Amino acid sequence: MTDAAWARITALVVPIHDRGGRPCCEHRWREYVNALPFVVTKGIPWRALPHDFAVSWSATHKHFTRWTSRGLWQRVLTMLRGQDRSADGRHEHPTAAVEDSSSVQSTPVPGPRRFDSAKKVDGIKRHILLDTAGRPRPPT
């Protein structure tokens, strides 16, 4: 993660330590965030995180699940999307949306699955809302 990207999300990721004890240093929080793309985008198991990181897989998993349950990623995406829209000279909150969809073929395993009659494949259809510039938008 670049320094500019980290500066944009630091306030949301690094907690204010008000419970006493020794607070965790900021570079460790950055390591937690840097480790996440390996699991989220590449699909590797948590235990298979590269050992180059200064944080353990278990601590990274713990913080990821906490952040997810508290809605941190939704807030990060909303903030980054608003900043990008402002930089483009647009209003921070989009007023229009475009729906995009794709069909994903399922494996030939017995069990519940759908049939996309338009493409004549077994599988599911995924939908996502995008603003007019192609950025993901949460449903309203």
From TrEMBL:
Residues 84-94 have a biased composition (Basic and acidic residues). Residues 1-76 form the Insertion element IS402-like domain. It comes from the Bacteria. InterPro entries: IS402-like_dom (IPR025161). Pfam families: DUF4096 (PF13340). This is Insertion element IS402-like domain-containing protein. The lineage of its organism: Bacteria, Bacillati, Actinomycetota, Actinomycetes, Micrococcales. Residues 84-117 are annotated as: Disordered.
